[in-house]
Amino acid sequence: MPADSSLLLHRFPLNPVLPAKDGDRARAFYRDVLGLRLLSGPHDDPMMFGAGNGSTLVVTEIPEREPPPYPVVSFLVEDIEELVAALRARGAEMAPLPGSASFAGAEGARSGDVMDFGPVKSAFVRDSEGNLLALNEIVGQLGE
Fold first, then answer.
1. Overall domain count for the chain
2. For labelling, which of 1, 35, 58, 94 has a CA lying 20 to 30 Å from the CA of 85?
């Protein structure tokens, strides 16, 4: 029996949720350092931030939770080198690539905080709560 497509998830936006040991510190980081729009109230928890194309990110205070060592949120960006420099100037901590330095089997070439994998350039930023965020710029055809 074919499923009713109106009941499937493909039409709904994704909303990643990240833990924060300190909600006020996380709110300041996402709003003031990354420059995301705070969509929830100034002291609400969970807090919701707006990013490009209507995408959102939720951060909620969970003091005892440890973030995973890999990125669970990725921003598709442009002009990654300039963006990394701007984020560093605002106090963001850039992080080394987690795990092996390869993408789709291709070894990456590091240039400062940016890894060039051919079709994709990537950088990683650690948020105020230890979560790892990926910044990815598509610079060529994937699958070449």
1. 1
2. 58
